[in-house]
Amino acid sequence: MSAASRKLEILKKRAEFLSVAANGKKWVAPGFILQIGAEHDPAPNVRLGFTASGRIGNAVTRNRAKRRLRALAAELMPHACCRHDYVLIARPTTPVCAFEKLRDDLTKGLKKLKLWRS
Asked: Is 66 part of a structural domain of the chain?
């Protein structure tokens, strides 16, 4: 399946988020944290979750941060390896960081962790 035809499946259950966090692999960038779940059989789509805690700011700020992470994921995560689940965690700089910087950081992180598929 080509990267362009892959869709994102959203993680919604707390157990799925905890499973990804339990693996312990992560990429920390100034604008977000990317957690990578344990390897499993390849899924047809990339499975991904988003989170923004109260320390990001009020509800408006948290929602803006999550919207930016969702837009980033829609653009780049179809290129990610389907053998892992991912969680993007907002940081206090997520709502104000330049989108190009977020894009570069996520691309760099996926390539460095050898999870980028073109």
From this structure: yes
- Residue 55 within a domain: yes
CATH number at residue 30: 3.30.230.10
When computed from its CA atoms, the radius of gyration of the chain, rounded to whole angstroms, is: 13
Q: How many C-beta atoms surround the C-beta of residue 111 within 10 A?
A: 11
SS (H, E, C) 78-92: HHECCCCEEEEEECC
Residue 51 belongs to some domain of the structure: yes
pLDDT digits (tens, 9 = 90+) for 28-67: 999 999 999 988 888 888 999 999 999 999 999 999 999 9
pTM listed for this prediction? 0.91
**Locate tokens 């905890």: which residue?**
18
Give the range of the structural domain holding residue 48, as residue numbers without chain letter.
3-112
Q: Tell whether 85 is covered by a domain.
A: yes
Helices (H), the chain: 14-23, 59-76, 99-112
The DSSP secondary-structure symbol of 27 reads: E
- Residue 59 in tokens: 């509800």
